[in-house]
Write a structure and sequence with these properties.
The chain is of the alpha+beta class and 155 residues long. The chain has a four-stranded antiparallel β-sheet with strand order 1-2-4-3, with helices on one face. Helix 2 packs across helix 3 and helix 3 packs across helix 5. 25% of the residues are buried.
Length: 155
């Protein structure tokens, strides 16, 4: 299966007509009315609230954490992650991000949905024992369907 076929498979699974369209319109309208920078804190807060409503089981290892996150993402039908951990940071690669079929809308959707994911991952990591001073942020990503986050002490 090539990348285009895989992307089409995930898009068909993740973007139910009606619900995904409504969600996309709501987020697009919010960003258009309030602005991207002004919408970002609200979208992060939405992610944190969603993570609080869907907590993870306590993980003892990075592998268990990755499994717990992937179980929850599978319930949401939002793709999957892998985690690359070092002594000073964790890189979370979120793959198969749900995207609108219209390529012209993908960049704005990716930015908004990534803010929601940033809130989700930050809350889940804090709930696993992460310290409030350790930051999670989005890094540049290779495509519309892949998002990279870094969790690292910025002190």
């Amino acid at each position: 299966m090539n990348d285009a076929q895989l992307l089409q498979y995930f898009q068909n699974q993740q973007t139910q007509p009606g619900w995904f369209s409504l969600l996309h319109i709501m987020i697009d309208s919010m960003v258009a009315n309030a602005g991207e920078a002004e919408s970002r804190p609200f979208l992060i807060q939405m992610g944190e609230t969603l993570a609080a409503r869907h907590p993870l089981a306590l993980a003892r290892t990075v592998g268990e954490l990755e499994s717990q996150i992937n179980l929850q993402l599978a319930r949401f039908n939002w793709g999957y992650i892998d985690i690359e951990a070092s002594e000073t940071a964790m890189l979370i690669r979120h793959m198969a991000l749900p995207v609108p079929a219209d390529e012209a809308q993908q960049a704005s959707w990716n930015n908004a949905f990534s803010a929601v994911l940033e809130g989700i991952y930050a809350r889940w990591l804090r709930d696993q024992g992460g310290k409030p001073h350790v930051s999670l942020w989005r890094e540049s990503s290779p495509s519309a369907t892949v998002v990279h986050f870094r969790y690292q002490n910025s002190r």
